[in-house]
């Protein structure tokens, strides 16, 4: 059975906060928004953190502008006001935020760097997306650019520039080139990690602040384990 890693207000890694947004380095195992599991989501933990830190009475407003898969780690942005949420939603919907991910794979990609284009079709019952070389019914175009930046004892570190934001996009596209992410059983890796996470990390994020209009750039350290620490 995989170990669930759940954050508390005391161990949140806050990268940035102001009156309009708060940026968190999510740990693998945390779920961003509540689902059928009933586990306490990261959004609720962040609310508790804000309530305690600022001694706020009543309910704390927090809007979810985007998500990361549960076994994935890295940068997540929440809105602290409804105005900020609507503007963040627009930023992410219109691909105005630049996202860079790190992924560790065991099978070396055939090319050291490449642009991958697939058409992804989601299977809701399996909570899985399948990558196709050609467009098929109900599929969505998915594009990412990767480059191999380091070799780590039979594993390889890929830096990924995400051009579109599809369901399980990086996981499905890397699996399609036979380089599934370490620990990602759902997408073809041969064994799970001990804590149930996968070695996919939202490393960098930049966007224009929804209210101040200043450019924000964030870099989040990956979780601490033998392979990530080698990066």
Attribute tags:
231 residues; alpha+beta; 34% strand; globular
Count of separate DSSP helical elements: 4
Helices and strands: which structural class?
A: alpha+beta
Mean pLDDT score, rounded? 93
Q: What is the multimeric organization of the chains shown? A: single chain
- Termini separation comes to 28 Å
Main sheet summary: 11 strands, mixed
- Portion of residues in beta strands equals 25-35%
Residues in helices, as a percent range: 10-25%
Helix-strand pattern: EEHEEHEEEEEHEEH
Number of strands: 11
The best one-word shape is: globular
Spans of at least 5 consecutive residues with low confidence = 1-5
In short:
The protein is α+β, with helices and mostly antiparallel strands.
Describe this structure in words.
- By secondary structure, the protein is of the alpha+beta class.
- Helices cover 16% and strands 34% of the residues.
- The protein contains 4 helices and 11 strands.
- Strands 1, 2, 3, 4, 5, 6, 7, 8, 9, 10 and 11 form an 11-stranded mixed sheet that branches.
- The longest helix has 12 residues, at 42-53.
- It is globular, with a radius of gyration of 18 Å.
